[in-house]
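Exercise 7. Given the encoded structure of a 242-residue chain, write a plausible sequence.
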């Protein structure tokens, strides 16, 4: 009996109705831009008041699932990577995870993206990576510009995979990726470190250009391994400072 009570859904009614609307979207095969039924129709289907339905729609709009416009029915919305941006930035700002943890996640994801990009990239995308490396080389002495170009380089690789899910993963990480790049540069500030960072990017770009997925994955893996090791040493040095 206790287990039965523990299984009860105690969430607000509007949240449960929102789940029902999402299920309806899935069951009916609705796509971005398609309209949902009217508020009156949703009230009838869910057997709830208009206030509850409006709360459910507002909840779904806040989560980025639908778009609400005055005088129009709600519409299914395209996936918006920005919905996760504030969550990730807040997590980093409040020390719920560290830059080293960001690097661990990025290493796992971006090793795969490099390999897929080598297999699926277009000529234009390969040229874009070359251009970004050239720009990064010119901005070695400008940390913020370099960090932005570094992020764009990794985003371009995600786009070159041909799999939009990788783009949806990388885009929300923009600010924490740029932050991890900046921190990584502080941990690798010597001329030799900067030369290696640029060499790493050139190796990744070259492997993708050649269509060598194995070499691209290995180059990306080596890039993150070196960054992680440098960051670890940097943190140890800071902890040892009096």
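Solution.
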């Amino acid at each position: 009996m206790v287990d039965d009570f523990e299984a009860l859904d105690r969430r607000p009614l509007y949240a449960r109705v929102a789940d029902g609307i999402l299920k309806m979207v899935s069951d009916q095969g609705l796509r971005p831009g398609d309209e949902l039924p009217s508020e009156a129709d949703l009230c009838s289907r869910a057997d709830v008041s208009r206030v509850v339905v409006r709360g459910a729609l507002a909840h779904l709009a806040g989560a980025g699932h639908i778009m609400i416009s005055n005088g129009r029915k709600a519409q299914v919305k395209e996936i918006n990577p920005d919905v996760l941006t504030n969550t990730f930035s807040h997590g980093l700002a409040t020390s719920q995870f560290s830059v080293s943890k960001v690097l661990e996640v990025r290493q796992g994801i971006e090793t795969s993206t490099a390999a897929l990009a080598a297999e699926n990239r277009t000529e234009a995308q390969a040229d874009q990576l070359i251009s970004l490396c050239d720009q990064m080389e010119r901005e070695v002495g400008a940390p913020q510009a370099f960090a932005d170009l570094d992020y764009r380089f990794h985003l371009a690789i995600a786009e070159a995979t041909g799999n939009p899910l990788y783009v949806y993963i990388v885009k929300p990480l923009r600010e924490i990726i740029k932050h991890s790049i900046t921190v990584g540069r502080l941990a690798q500030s010597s001329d030799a470190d900067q030369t290696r960072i640029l060499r790493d990017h050139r190796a990744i770009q070259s492997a993708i250009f050649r269509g060598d997925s194995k070499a691209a994955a290995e180059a990306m893996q080596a890039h993150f391994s070196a960054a992680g090791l440098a960051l670890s040493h940097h943190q140890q040095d800071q902890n040892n400072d009096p």
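Remark. Residues 81 and 172 are 5 Å apart (CA to CA). Students should compare their own answers with the one above.
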